[in-house]
Write a structure and sequence with these properties.
The protein is of the alpha+beta class. It contains three helices and four strands; from the N terminus they run ααββαββ.
Length: 126
């Protein structure tokens, strides 16, 4: 029986022989830090999600603000309801993990800690 490069038996020795250095050197490298996140935000009554790139330390409030700004800048349909008194348009909206989730996300929570990259933006229910 011939040994295979892809086989589990002796794989460490084969990799070390192919690369010319021990396998331990490869595993000692630190994992790269996440600096940016690509997030999809589906807006209520819209057909396609808005794609937003955020920093790794962004909060849910930052994501809502950025998603509303991108939606308006791209002139998506249907247009978001406008209110002349609102300085911050994102304050009228809340983020959910999905459109079937009843609980809104905490605005101070980090997006990275939520474990999802897909969100649903809907009008705040008063």
């Amino acid at each position: 029986m011939r040994s295979s490069v892809h086989g589990p038996a002796g794989a460490g020795a084969t990799v070390a022989a192919l690369l010319g250095h021990p396998l331990a050197v490869l595993t000692e490298r630190p994992a790269p830090r996440l600096t940016r996140l690509l997030v999809n935000v589906t807006v209520e009554r819209s057909l396609w999600p808005v794609h937003v790139v955020l920093g790794a330390d962004a909060t849910v409030a930052d994501l809502a603000r950025t998603a509303v700004a991108a939606y308006v800048a791209e002139r998506r349909r249907p247009p978001l309801p406008a209110d002349a008194k609102d300085v911050d348009a994102a304050s009228r909206f809340e983020l959910h993990l999905s459109k079937y989730s009843l609980d809104a996300l905490n605005p101070d929570e980090k997006v990275l800690d939520l474990g999802s990259r897909n969100f649903f933006l809907c009008a705040r229910r008063f």
